[in-house]
Amino acid sequence: MAIDFTLTDEQQAYRDALRESFKREVGTAEQLEQATEGHTTHHSGDLSRKFGAAGLLGPSLAEEHGGGGAGVVEEMILLEEIMRNQAPIGAYPVSLIVAGATQKFATPEQKQLVLGNIAAGGVEAIAMSEPEAGSDVASLTTTATRADGGWILNGVKLWISNAHIADRILVVCRVPDSAKHEGLCMIWVDREAEGVRVDEVKTMSGQREVNYVYLDDVFVTDDAVLGEPGNGWLQLMSGLNVERLIIAALALGQAEQALAGALQYAKERKQFGRSIGSFQIQQHRLVDMATEVELSRLLVYKVAADVDRDPTALFPREASMAKVWATETAERTVNAAFKIHGGYGYASEYSISRQIGPSMVATIFGGTNDIQRNIIAKVMGL
Fold first, then answer.
1. What pLDDT shows up at residue 4?
2. List of residues 6+ apart from 102 with CB closer than 8 A
3. How many domains does the chain have?
4. Would you say the pTM of this structure is higher than 0.85?
């Protein structure tokens, strides 16, 4: 059986367009520093809307909503290139997670609002985790209580990416007194609605990305509910596998960027009268990095192609494998690149100094890799 690992002409043209746009807008260290406000933010709203207007975002979204009408493979290309080129549109991946649930369960009006916003470069957030509900997300306690013409939400969410810049936050909550996996709802809340407070969680990256979200008697109308009230657990689970694939693609791009930077540095940096890349220990280190990155690429795109062939399948085993391998490869690659840079890896002029934290936390976001291994083991019948 023949297996074709090459991109189509259309997919390659899309990749080329992304690389050209990212190089033009943030191709120099000075451009990137300006776009990220001195490396203090991971997302530029102006650039995101500019890329949206150019038709570069939402390749898997329907054309009627401003997307490209393509598939998951095209989304992997976009996510990989975002990280590979350090493009400061870091809110897009989470918006894409919201898009997945919206495409499956939203009304036509909701799709036009949310998907159209994402394709245009807007930001959507999703709020699952809580202070006492992380890996065990079904234990969440944020409530949605029936009210005249809508719902009243109360609770606290934690680690909510991009909530401070999102147009809406898709809150996962539950009907009071419901069983653990029952009574869950997914409800959109406007970020600036009365009773909503978003507080920053300061992180080692120095960039504002994750937040607390406090909901104090927040009223929403019935048309803010995604899908069916009480069916939130199944709706949530149907999208988590794609979320893990999204994280895997981002990790692939990060590993590629770290490898490229380390390779360039090894060729240019001289010690003992020769480039450090001429020493066998560094050559072997770089070869191992390149091999693992290539394996990540094969796995990520293989799973993405499987999803495109059968969008109704969940692929829990394959998506979890991709997430585990790609994120741990990125962590190892970034660590190895840091060592190749030596003391200069600690200097802010080199991007590797800003990659340590993100490479570590990727193994935790979207379900820790230990949980992913539990999922894989379960599918294997263990």
1. 74
2. 110, 111, 114, 115, 226
3. 3
4. yes
